[in-house]
Amino acid sequence: MLWDRAFKALAVVASCCASVADAITYTPLKPPSYPLAVRSPYLSAWIPGNDVASLPSHNAQFWEGNKLIWSVIARVDGVAYNLFGVAFPPNGTQSAVVTEAVYTSSHTIFTVTAGSRNFTLDFFSPVSPKNYLRQSLPFSYLTVTVAAGDSSSVQIYSDIDASWTGQPGHARWSFSRNASTSVYEIQAVNTATFSENNQGQALWGSAVYASRPTDSSLLSSASGPSLSTRESFINGGSLTDTQDEWSSTGVVAFAHDLGTTTDASAVTFAIGHARKESIDFLGQTQTGYYRARYPEVVGAVSHFLDDYEDANAESVKFDQLIQDTGVYSYGNKDYSDILALSVRQVYGGIELTIPSESLDVKEVRAFIKEISSDGNINTVDVIYATFPIFYVLSPEFLKLLLTPVFEYMGSSAYTKLYAVHELGANYPNATGHPANGEEMPIEESGNMIILTYAYQIATGKTDLAETYSAQLKQFADYLFQNGLYPASQLSLNDALGALANQTNLAVKAAVGLATYGALSGQSNYTAAGKDFAGKIWTDHLGTDVNGTHFLIQYGEEPWFLVYNHYPDLLFNLDTFPGEAYNATAQFYPTVRKTDGVPLDGAISWGQTNWQSFVAATVRGPTRNLFIDDLHRYISNGLNSAPFSDRYWVEAGNGFSAGQEYAFRARPTLGSHFALAALTGADILFSE
């Protein structure tokens, strides 16, 4: 009987939870995880889609999954309602009811009901890749709006704690004002510059929280133990404007009193993670681009709040552009849903920097983190996987990312004939390729050529190719001498291990040579690339005997997903004949598993990067198959990590088909723009 009662009680709870979840409108869909504040590898806050139904009691998470304390509480006519992130609700509080969840390319918006009033929580991470100042500011917005309603009194509270510093058990905080802007900074104590904790959080710099009063609100603040600070607001609707010493249970908090109002009113908070020393680039410290204008945190975050209206207006146009791009390039909004969810994750993995000493904006560089896989910095094949989004939206980023790689390879520290794999094993330390680091000679040599040409085609500028012409020719010559019969080595998909005569590497060499021919105007390289392609395809060196599919190795099954064809089509090189693309379009549907096409015939997982590249190389029903599978994957409700680009396409190994596998929050989702890139380059408006 006891078990029966327990089972019935659990059934009631489950039913209630299901009804709450069912009552929420998810637009355009419920993703695995919603981006909240995603602006850099160290400002990367998310909430799983399946947690949204209980948003008032669920914490934000860093990309790795560890909790971040960030709460919002509102009072309506003296009754306190938890709106977001209050895992242990204080006595006397109630939970708001979530009614809607929306994501766009730059906004995540939740609508909740608290008593007689409706509130929206707008988590806005600007994406402005042609405005380097705006893009480089290491902050994100949270705007809480109370909708028009009855004549109730409304107050809004929000806090954060030291979990944002990477060392929640040992920190310090400070409070300052800049005109009307109030700013808290929280710092880890006794940690090293350029160091991370085990979750990938920065252990140096400052977690920042800021707000300012509006025309309709009075702002108060306080720092102190979380329970007493929250209770102060819950009981009185304001804070004490006192600042306690840091404690392990402490929070920094703001409260806005909107008074009695029937009108819609909004208050905005800025959250961020700022580091004066951003990147160690070959012993030269880099700092955020924004510091040329705003060298101090308080001035930078004040400007960020000043910039809200312009940034938001830009985001409206940007979000519509992404929506339209998806529909135009594919034909329906499913592709737009994928693009919109990918954007913040890509640009949130990149930082724009300038030299710390000179603060010279003419020396701007970009650094990208290989988040979650191994933490490398400016990994060339990660840039390659990401490049379609840059080709479409911000091709100058290709130059900014490639320049430090070229600079390193041109130094005495690098002496090899082929291109380097990355600039350092551990972001943010771009201190050079480690002696025991991964080597991908053909892969990266081809990638450097292809990426340089992508920049040139998209911008019409030849400066990158001209500056590094000697290196590019060296890489092309290496491909010619070593690319048709690759020695045992790693490819872009390093999970395969080192293999000799990898077909995909030979394809990369063929396309790389043809690309170099177009880049340099030297037709002999174009001819060499086509000669390689003829042997691989026409002579069946890299295919089965009937030419129905490409093999993972010459003469060796299984088949392999050939994603290195993509630049051939993007650049209209005609390296491989149309028959090769027709054959793959016919073949891939025959080997699709339950939830998608795997990377090769011997495994049960696929990667959205290469599925997206291949979707751009095929047409008709096969293209639809790839896009439909990707859309189904992000909306199936099985996952919780920030958009993993690797997932199981067939059940096994304790996983269900459609479940994410290993990776999370990687910026490589720029690959999802591969199809969009076929319709045009550099389409983003300039501010």
TrEMBL record:
Signal peptide: 1-23
The Glutaminase A central domain, residue ranges: 333-675
Keyword presence, RNA-binding: no
Keywords per UniProt: Signal
Residue stretches making up the Glutaminase A N-terminal domain: 106-324
UniProt xrefs under PANTHER family: GLUTAMINASE A-RELATED (PTHR31987), PUTATIVE (AFU_ORTHOLOGUE AFUA_6G09910)-RELATED (PTHR31987:SF14)
Protein name per its UniProtKB record: Glutaminase
Organism of derivation: Penicillium diatomitis
